[in-house]
Amino acid sequence: xxxxxxxxxxxxxxxxxxxxxxxxxxxxxxxxxxxxxxxxxxxxxxxxxxxxxxxxxxxxxxxxxxxxxxxxxxxxxxxxxxxxxxxxxxxxxxxxxxxxxxxxxxxxxxxxxxxxxxxxxxxxxxxxxxxxxxxxxxxxxxxxxxxxxxxxxxxxxxxxxxxxxxxxxxxxxxxxxxxxxxxxxxxxxxxxxxxxxxxxxxxxxxxxxxxxxxxxxxxxxxxxxxxxxxxxxxxxxxxxxxxxxxxxxxxxxxxxxxxxxxxxxxxxxxxxxxxxxxxxxxxxxxxxxxxxxxxxxxxxxxxxxxxxxxxxxxxxxxxxxxxxxxxxxxxxxxxxxxxxxxxxxxxxxxxxxxxxxxxxxxxxxxxxxxxxxxxxxxxxxxxxxxxxxxxxxxxxxxxxxxxxxxxxxxxxxxxxxxxxxxxxxxxxxxxxxxxxxxxxxxxxxxxxxxxxxxxxxxxxxxxxxxxxxxxxxxxxxxxxxxxxxxxxxxxxxxxxxxxxxxxxxxxxxxxxxxxxxxxxxxxxxxxxxxxxxxxxxxxxxxxxxxxxxxx
Amino acid sequence: xxxxxxxxxxxxxxxxxxxxxxxxxxxxxxxxxxxxxxxxxxxxxxxxxxxxxxxxxxxxxxxxxxxxxxxxxxxxxxxxxxxxxxxxxxxxxxxxxxxxxxxxxxxxxxxxxxxxxxxxxxxxxxxxxxxxxxxxxxxxxxxxxxxxxxxxxxxxxxxxxxxxxxx
Lengths: 551, 167
Fold this sequence. Notes:
heterodimer; A: 551 residues; Sulfite Reductase Hemoprotein, domain 1; Sulfite Reductase Hemoprotein, domain 2; B: 167 residues
């Protein structure tokens, strides 16, 4: 993991003091509500339905056990003993007191954490594959570049007041697990024909009101030019992005309006002026950052030890291994996904005691590292196969062992109308109703891989557009209704789902899901996943089934 | 001009008057900061005072390139502090066009933006009239370092950091 040096600590602490001054001036009436708002947002602080909400950055999803214990301490001391993991790999506290937020930030700074740019119209937390560095299918470990981007974007003086928020994702594996095609900038770490490492640069993807898949503006960017090229893209956006209408202000609208060719040409013009300038990376720079992400002290192990395989005779364990663990690049190790999608618990929520339990598990069964995934689950990256059975038992004891990763009940879900001021509808109770409808594990397993994504409003924090089945909360004359989309997907074949028809009342959503799944089971061919069936037969059969008049 | 911070300190002996509108009158002896169109029209005329120009966010600093040597001061307007276009204009003027004169931030200029403004090349700040420039001055010292290459520190931190380690 990256370790702060004196300068990193100093900067984060200076930001804490700056925010403390801003908060004090606001509370003293020296900063108006309108003036304080952008300043507090840039430090992750929203004023929500019930209380302020503080979003803390987890750079590219990396957490140490020490940091996790600090988050548990903050949940106990300043909040109501729990917190919520978000779809940007960050964590949110729902009940802090405004006047105490600077103290929370000071505590976070002690463990190399902050809330800088977790909201606001600036460059947000850079995200990446939660399995970066350990995945068996990884081509290139992109984490050194993630950290370089994190530092470049942190407190960037030119790009602090952009037209709108700006999100960057990096993927280094064949299978894109970072949703790079729906980011303002998506960076694929790739090799060119000569075998050199570089980036394929996508710009202008995004969800929200206008879901668009990002377009390639550069097929191959040599890595030394990463920062100058990012500066060029951001400068073009900062200067020409729309500022008259917040719904038209994202870079995707600019790219669309200019055409991707014209946009790419404008960036190229700007970049030619910046290229080879002082921000050009040297091999020494990259090596310095890569040095923080070297392999931990793995043991040389044989794959599939008897202590592991013997236990697979136990069906519940075997099921958990199948769904909640992932192949590791080292023999004898697997990565474990701790499910934060237990029925009855809001997706992504975690209690302070659970945080401590995860920290303990990371220390005992790994190297003290934890990852947060954009699917709102946690990962122990380096578990020895011989420890899996014990890890499973502990995970069960602490409520993390629901064997549903990648299944229909592993719902990606925003906090919705229970917490969020922007939401049109509640998401948590509806997600729970769906989870209860599909509580039969055999049936759930039989349905197989299904991404179900749920947003409480069209800002799309729950990424409903890229769910194989998506739900969007809408407001109809002050009532909560739910629109269902089908056919969305993330990853290498990113697609925006299509609405199947009129929206449903809250009570009717689980039944609609049931009809969709029943039709899928009837129609699927041998070995076909839900999304493949939807692509093959199209939406019409689903529409007919769901909206058929019952006689 | 009131409420001015210049070169890191309060300044009280400023002779410039900001001409906001193309319709505002001014005399030929005055030192004036003019809207771009008025400046381009008057720059070769009979004016005994000094002439400067101010840019709106949607205007392009590139049009001033040929006039930079004649301009003792360029002001950049921030109609709202959340409008960040002026930061790019400042960098372009300093880094690409090599402007050496005074670069003055005007408009919705407040304490909490001063540190970033200084980094991108502003050396003068007219603090919004209802705020105290003396307390705003503290904002210049909010950060003692920055990660990026900037006008004030053209070598990014990663280069300085890596070279420290290599050395």
